[in-house]
UniProtKB/TrEMBL annotation:
The keyword Cytoplasm does not apply. One of its GO terms (molecular function) is epoxide hydrolase activity. InterPro entries: AB_hydrolase_fold (IPR029058), Epoxide_hydro_N (IPR010497). It comes from Hymenoscyphus albidus. Belongs to the peptidase S33 family. One of its GO terms (biological process) is epoxide metabolic process. Residues 63-177 form the Epoxide hydrolase N-terminal domain. This is Epoxide hydrolase N-terminal domain-containing protein.
């Protein structure tokens, strides 16, 4: 009780010392308050479909702990389907060509046996529930929607370090929040917290993926990314993170229809009053073209001089020279574009890619993948192979990823990508949004794949780039294989935003008002807020409106 009073007094003092726009994001951080989000924390969206009534989200219930649970009946059905699987006949190919037509039988068959004989979902389920603080909140969509509340599943990890910064981690499509575990400890509890920035982590599952409900309202058709950005921002505000950073966890150029770039950037563009910066991995940006003003002039001058000016560095020219000097074998180029049409750099390929992936008719694809765990396993194995040919994921990890898609069903995710593809194409025809602060991370600077190298300076046409890093090698399975790169990008963003924006520096005053012992004691008092206690209680239901009041 004493600690609770201290926190209330500290909150009041901070609010009296700071103007509304500089309220400390930690002043009421852990209190399970039922108070409404301050009016000045709401952001106006530039989406015409979401303008009009300026009402705010009305959060009246506490966020409740949540434990994942899959029906035993469904697990039994999964086992039966695995046992009854009919594998296709194969064409005899030499070993170096065995992946040429897709996942080979000698890859899939041992995984089926492992799934049947050695894998236990209940063991993985218990581990996830015991090791991760999981929650669920439901948003009540406004009239005329008659859909049930939209329930969003998220992980919320409070760092034990006083100077931690709130960070929204956005899962790479089509992964769920439970696939990002390798990132959690390095970000929330670094080995040297005094010299390395720690973070409070909020990791939601995108609507329709994992254990989050899908967007089913007609209002969301054509604006699934806009709606998702609004939902994720609302979760951060509901947790009393008035100011926060966001980060992608997958390559924007390699993700399905570019979702890993467009969703994080939309959060930064639509809600600049709360999301102070976004860390992007390989954004979908192209080299400047004639008619694009000073961006093109700077590019041509820097390229002619091969100089480190205008945001370009020598490594950029080296990577681009490798591309220019590369053999222009037409067959090779066609093969690259066929394998990954999204990465060819041609914007008019986006919907064609949806057709190639079977997402032009997502429901048709779902009939097959919702009925066959082995079919879905083969799709994941093929995807893993293309992204990281020499990956070291264990059979358990491969089946974990597959199960997190198979058990909830893939149909909502497929529809999400199909709708996102159309939305992204429509957005590409509109003027750029606000220039938000971003960190840019690119791979392949060593020429490992010059066809797909993205120069960080190209992003300055759309974004205010405050930090860049260039990594050697391919992105691969980012959240497993390039954890250090993701973490470095987020910390670089936090450092630069902290130098530019006083709202991230407001923590220093609170450090004076609260000693280390007091902070540790308050964390102990609120341990129930971070672990599962009473899972029998209903999910939170909050009234969710599509319109935010102007800041």
């Amino acid at each position: 009780m004493i600690n609770l009073i201290r926190r209330h007094l500290r909150s009041s003092l901070l609010h009296s010392l700071y103007s509304k726009e500089n309220i400390s994001l930690y002043s009421t951080l852990s209190l399970p308050s039922r108070s409404h989000i301050p009016m000045d924390m709401q952001e106006a969206t530039s989406n015409p479909a979401m303008e009009g009534d300026q009402r705010n989200p009305n959060f009246e219930e506490e966020i409740q702990p949540y434990k994942i649970h899959v029906s035993s009946k469904y697990l039994s059905l999964t086992q039966k389907k695995l046992e009854l699987t009919r594998l296709p006949h194969e064409v005899a190919l030499p070993k170096e060509r065995e992946w040429e037509l897709g996942a080979p039988k000698n890859e899939i068959e041992p995984l089926i046996d492992f799934w049947l004989e050695n894998y236990s979902w209940r063991t993985q389920e218990a581990h996830l529930n015991n090791s991760l603080p999981q929650y669920r909140i439901a948003f009540r969509l406004p009239p005329p929607s008659t859909s049930p509340p939209l329930r969003i599943h998220f992980v919320h990890i409070r760092s034990r370090h006083r100077h931690a910064i709130p960070l929204l981690l956005i899962p790479s499509s089509p992964l769920t929040n439970l696939s990002l575990i390798p990132l959690f400890a390095p970000l929330s509890d670094p080995a040297s917290p005094t010299s390395t920035q720690p973070f409070h982590l909020v990791v939601p599952s995108i609507p329709g993926l994992g254990f989050s409900d899908p967007l089913q309202t007609p209002e969301a058709e054509g604006t699934v990314l806009e709606y998702t950005a609004m939902i994720l921002n609302s979760i951060m505000l509901r947790l009393k993170y008035d100011f926060y950073l966001a980060s992608a966890t997958g390559s924007g150029r390699e993700s399905a229809v570019g979702v890993d770039y467009h969703l994080p950037r939309l959060i930064g563009e639509r809600f600049p009053g709360s999301c102070l910066g976004v860390s992007l991995l390989e954004p979908e940006v192209q080299s400047p073209r004639v008619g694009e003003g000073m961006s093109w002039v700077k590019f041509r001058v820097a390229r002619f001089l091969k100089a480190a000016v205008f945001g370009y560095v020598k490594e950029d020219w080296r990577a681009m020279n490798l591309l220019r000097n590369k053999s222009k074998d037409t067959t090779k180029k066609d093969q690259v574009n066929e394998e990954s049409p999204l990465l060819s750099g041609k914007k008019n390929k986006s919907l064609e890619t949806v057709g190639v992936l079977g997402l032009r008719e997502p429901t048709t694809l779902s009939y097959a993948l919702c009925d066959s765990p082995v079919g879905l396993l083969a799709v994941f194995c093929s995807g893993l192979r293309k992204i990281s040919p020499n990956h070291s994921l264990s059979p358990t990890e491969i089946i974990d990823v597959t199960s997190l898609a198979w058990l909830p069903g893939i149909e909502a995710g497929a529809r999400f990508w199909a709708a996102a593809a159309k939305e992204i194409q429509a957005m590409s025809k509109k003027p750029p949004g606000p220039r938000t602060r971003v960190a840019i991370t690119v791979f392949r600077v060593d020429g490992s794949d010059p066809d797909r190298y993205t120069c960080p300076a190209w992003a300055t046409r759309k974004h205010n780039v405050v930090f860049t890093q260039r990594a050697v090698g391919l992105p691969g399975l980012v959240s497993w294989e390039r954890v250090d790169v993701v973490v470095a990008g987020v910390r670089g963003l936090a450092r630069e935003i902290g130098n530019l924006d006083p709202r991230l520096r407001s923590r220093r005053l609170e450090d004076v008002l609260m000693s280390d012992d007091e902070y540790s004691a308050s964390e102990d008092d609120e341990s129930g807020h971070d672990i599962q206690l009473n899972v029998g209680r209903p999910d939170t239901v909050a009234n969710f409106n599509t319109n935010h009041g102007a800041a």
